[in-house]
Structure formats: structure tokens, C-alpha cells
Amino acid sequence: MPKTLVTGATAGIGLETARALAGLGHDVWVHGRSSASASEAVATLQEDNQAAVLVPVAADLSSLDEVRSLGESLQDVALDRIVHNAGVVMPEPTTTIDGFETTWAVNHLAPFLLTSLLIESMLQLPEARVITVSSIGHRAGRIHFDDVNLRGRYDHITAYCQTKLANVLFTEELARRTAGTNIVAHALDPGVVRTKLLDRTGFGNQPARTPADGARTSVFLATDPGVARTSGGYYVNERQASATGTDPEVARRLWELSECQAGAPMPSV
């Protein structure tokens, strides 16, 4: 059975992604910010599926040290799938212990670093997938290379959209760098979903789908055999779509910046 890590799996889209994949026979590593929240999510999921293999794992993704510890602890698991689902929107500017704006750290640097720590073990498998939850908000984003922390000009929508574009650019560059290998990388927009994150964006008054509906494209990308034939795609409603605002040179610059900020160059493949 595939072994899958789902980050941010204690509520919302992540919890429903874990639930669906467990129902399809995946062994699921259920990530939460704390051991207590991850264990509680596993208990909830186990109530509906006693036969499921569910493993709680914890890390505060705003801390690069905790991301490293999580990645190192999973290197011998031989994960087939990573679903980078965890995401935040910070109404006010906050700074992590590493000195980064929190939205940037959690939504972009954490997936980048976690992938860098796990990719070598994933390369040993017949086929592996890195799936990153982006958003339609990537269309309004740009990477502020002069200061990704947005010091003195912070706006939560600007910060969020920057990271959602970064998710797409990361996916495209990862696909380019792993071309010809067993690694498949795709990004997705889950749609407008009724979650706590939606309310924090200030757009909570619009029609929204359920978290279970929002999880469908993540589950599709983790399970559908056809998506393994290509890499670097952007998906909406289980279909490939066109991302906007992407550029190979911007993706390369972002990759190099991310390696520097995360303190861990991605292994060459």
C-alpha cells in the first residue's frame, strides 16, 4: 500500500484528505502542529476506519528545526507520497524563531525543506509524488525578492498570495529538476472551501464547498495512475489547468533563495 504524509491533517481539507486516502488503502502519516492534535485526529479517523494504518506525527512548521526533525524522522519510512496541505494566513505580521514572516515560513519554506529531506529516499521507490496545495490566489501573487518578509508593508492577502505563487513555482522547478526520474510533482487549487483559513482571509462570506469536496483534487493527484505520466502540472477540480504568473527564471531564483533561507540545498538528482 502507498505510504503517504499529509501535512496540516488535523482539520479541514487535510483531515478529509487523510480520511479519503486511508479509505483507499493508503498508510497515512497524519501531521499536526502538536503530538496531541495529531493523535486526536488519528483517533477521529480511526473511529470511521478501524482497519486503517494511521500514524500521528508532529512539527511546528514555522520552525525550520522542527521541520528538519520531522523530515529526518521520516527518511527511513519510504514515503510514496507527500501532500503539502498545511497553510496559514496571519492577519497581522508575525516573525518565526528563524526570522521569517510566518506565512512565508509555513506555506513555502516548510514544504521546500521537507521535500529536500525526503527526496533521496523517495528516489529509491518505483514512483513517488510531491503534491502541493496552492490556491487561485496565486494569480494575484508575486515573489517580493527584495523582501519576502514584507517588512513595513505587510498585508495578509499579499503575503498569502505570494506563498501560493511560490507553491506553483516550487512545483514547476521541482518537476524540471527531477525530469527523467520517478518523481512526479503537481500543484493544485482546492477551490473555495469552508475552513478556518477561509475566514481569516476575509472572504468567508462567499459560497464555499465542504472540506471533503476541497480534498478531492489532492486525493486524485495522490491516487490517479494517469497523473504519473506528466509532472509540473496545476490542477483544478481534478483536471489540469493553466497557472498564471509563472516564469522559469523566477522559479529558478525562488529555488536558490529557498535553499539559502532553509539552510539545506536540495540534493541533486
Report on the architecture of this protein:
The chain is 42% helix and 14% strand. The protein has 269 residues and is of the alpha/beta class. The protein has one domain (3-262): 3-Layer(aba) Sandwich (Rossmann fold), CATH 3.40.50. It has an 8-stranded mixed sheet, sandwiched between helices. α1 (12-23) links the parallel β1 (3-6) and β2. α4 packs across α9 and α5 packs across α9. The longest helix has 22 residues, at 156-177. The chain is globular. 47% of the residues are buried. The model has no long low-confidence stretch (mean pLDDT 94).
Average pLDDT confidence is 94
What is the level 1 CATH name? Alpha Beta
Strand content: 5-15%
| N-to-C span | 26 Å
Instruction: Give the name of the CATH superfamily.
Output: NAD(P)-binding Rossmann-like Domain
Main β sheet profile: 8 strands, mixed
CATH architecture: 3-Layer(aba) Sandwich
Number of helices: 9
Strand order of the largest sheet: 3-2-1-4-5-6-7-8
> Overall 3D geometry?
globular
Helix content: 40-55%
Radius of gyration: 17 Å
Number of strands: 8
Structural class designation: alpha/beta
Domain unit count: 1
**SSE string:** EHEHEHEHEHEHHHEEH
CATH fold label: Rossmann fold
Low confidence ranges = none
Secondary-structure topology with pairs:
Blueprint: E1 3-6, H1 12-23, E2 27-32, H2 35-48, E3 54-58, H3 64-74, E4 81-84, H4 102-122, E5 128-133, H5 156-177, E6 183-189, H6 196-201, H7 211-214, H8 216-223, E7 233-236, E8 239-241, H9 248-262
Parallel strand pairs: 1-2, 1-4, 2-3, 4-5, 5-6, 6-7
Antiparallel strand pairs: 7-8
Helix pairs in contact: 3-4, 4-5, 4-9, 5-9
